[in-house]
Fold this sequence. Notes:
The protein has two helices and 26 strands. The protein has helices spanning 97-105, 108-118, and strands at 3-10, 26-29, 43-47, 63-70, 76-78, 84-86, 88-95, 122-124, 129-133, 138-142, 147-151, 156-160, 165-169, 174-178, 183-187, 192-196, 201-205, 210-214, 219-223, 228-232, 237-243, 246-248, 254-260, 266-272, 284-286, 293-295.
Amino acid sequence: xxxxxxxxxxxxxxxxxxxxxxxxxxxxxxxxxxxxxxxxxxxxxxxxxxxxxxxxxxxxxxxxxxxxxxxxxxxxxxxxxxxxxxxxxxxxxxxxxxxxxxxxxxxxxxxxxxxxxxxxxxxxxxxxxxxxxxxxxxxxxxxxxxxxxxxxxxxxxxxxxxxxxxxxxxxxxxxxxxxxxxxxxxxxxxxxxxxxxxxxxxxxxxxxxxxxxxxxxxxxxxxxxxxxxxxxxxxxxxxxxxxxxxxxxxxxxxxxxxxxxxxxxxxxxxxxxxxxxxxxxxxxxxxxxxxxxxxxx
Length: 297
């Protein structure tokens, strides 16, 4: 027995299903705990980030949480292949998606677990490489210049270390990398890519996909309608190549959003942080066919 990390998200005001309000840090406990492996009467999330990400809050301004829990069976219960529930835990992070995802998928505990469970599909050490294929596949590698790749629906790829790279493909796939100059790429509907570290890059493709990166000069790009891209840090760049998307950039950064003009022809609206009222770390969308930008609702 030991500890495990739970990934979950909630609304901007920290509320979740049923009106429960999560703390931004510190202890949290279900007031109506029942250890039966059914939904309800417990705190819910994805154990080590594994499960159905479609169950997470998809709001563009959602708060992403990392919760440390005791993995004893009386405290942590697997409901099905999509989620788990637990009695109590400790919120160790609440904030942006990129840091939450990399904290879970690229944590030391996650890599050790992947090495134990995945065997040949995980590796550690400088310039290490890991690859796996098949639905629900996982790949993890750690060390500078490491690489991880997986393919198949619900696949996961994670790598840590400077110049590391992670790539996954398939619907609901996830890719996360941490370290300066790191790269994360994911493809498939509702896919997620997150990277952290200066000059890091995150890219995702598919409808409702998400890309997030943090660190100075980092870049985030996503394609597909209703996608989001967020890049936090100085001189960052965020781009969404899909209609109905939302984007944000950091201080002295910029972002680009696609839209359809009055003739139904695709055009690009560009926002420069610090000019024409555009603020840093604020979500924006295209207001109408004229290409005017506004703070996202």
